[in-house]
């Protein structure tokens, strides 16, 4: 990577050339990409970041049956699920947090949905076991995300350091991991900022 002369080799073997490169990859997948022509300090900073390894589970019912028991669908749980919340009318969403992700991975595929629904049934009643449909998404082991949102463990902020979210033209970074706390706001803000910076440098 040199000013005005960047090359990206894609998985199919094709090489693309450009005057600048903007990486919008989450920090996990980025670690698997070989980057040259960028300072060691910048790569060390980027590679020092981590993501929260989590999963999401969603179950859809014909009605929000939990309300019949005076419950609003919001919970902090002690099972495999870490929390539940109503995503829409009759739809419950739940997150499996990093410290419980291993238990989820250990569930045989054929039991996984049944056991997660049992967690919800313990909170809201037997109707939870028979949704119209449900879906589990293993964000933490999805190769293209390797996580849920940016996670900051003690010591990470100073170790990642002041290069976080900054650029080394012609190499630019964006994506929610390059913002203070992940999330959509981070993805949008850093995307706009990286585009502005790349255009400023021409
Ligand atoms: C279950 C869940 C719930 C969430 N809820 C909220 C919420 O309520 N509010 C909120 O603000 N945020 C929420 N978030 C977080 C938010 O979705 C993310 O922070 C945001 O989508 C990240 O955007 P991004 O552009 O940085 O990365 P991504 O959207 O992850 O985009 C990165 C892209 O890079 C691609 N990619 C990866 N590796 C490669 C490679 N080697 N080559 C080419 N492409 C590659 C991926 O396929 C992906 O398309 C949630 C996330 C999850 C998982």
UniProtKB/TrEMBL annotation:
GO terms for molecular function: oxidoreductase activity. It holds the Pfam family Amino_oxidase. It comes from the Bacteria. SUPFAM superfamilies: FAD-linked reductases, C-terminal domain (SSF54373), FAD/NAD(P)-binding domain (SSF51905). Residues 4-198 form the Amine oxidase domain. Belongs to the flavin monoamine oxidase family. This is Monoamine oxidase. It comes from Streptomyces wuyuanensis. The lineage of its organism: Bacteria, Bacillati, Actinomycetota, Actinomycetes, Kitasatosporales.
């Amino acid at each position: 990577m040199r000013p005005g002369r960047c090359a990206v080799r894609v998985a199919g073997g094709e090489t693309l050339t450009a005057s600048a490169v903007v990486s919008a990859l989450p920090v996990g997948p980025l670690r698997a990409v070989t980057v040259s022509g960028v300072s060691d300090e910048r790569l060390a900073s980027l590679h020092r970041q981590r993501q929260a390894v989590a999963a999401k589970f969603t179950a859809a019912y014909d009605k929000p049956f939990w309300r019949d028991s005076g419950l609003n669908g919001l919970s902090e749980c002690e099972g495999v699920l870490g929390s539940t919340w109503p995503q829409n009318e009759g739809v419950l969403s739940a997150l499996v947090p990093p410290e419980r992700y291993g238990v989820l991975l250990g569930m045989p595929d054929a039991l996984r949905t049944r056991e997660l629904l049992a967690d919800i049934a313990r909170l809201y009643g037997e109707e939870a076991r028979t949704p119209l449909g449900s879906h589990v998404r293993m964000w933490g082991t999805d190769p293209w995300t390797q996580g849920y949102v940016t996670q900051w463990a003690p010591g990470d902020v100073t170790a990642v350091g002041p290069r976080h979210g900054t650029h080394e033209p012609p190499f630019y970074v964006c994506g929610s991991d390059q913002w203070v706390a992940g999330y959509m706001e981070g993805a949008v803000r850093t995307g706009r900022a990286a585009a502005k910076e790349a255009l400023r440098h021409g």
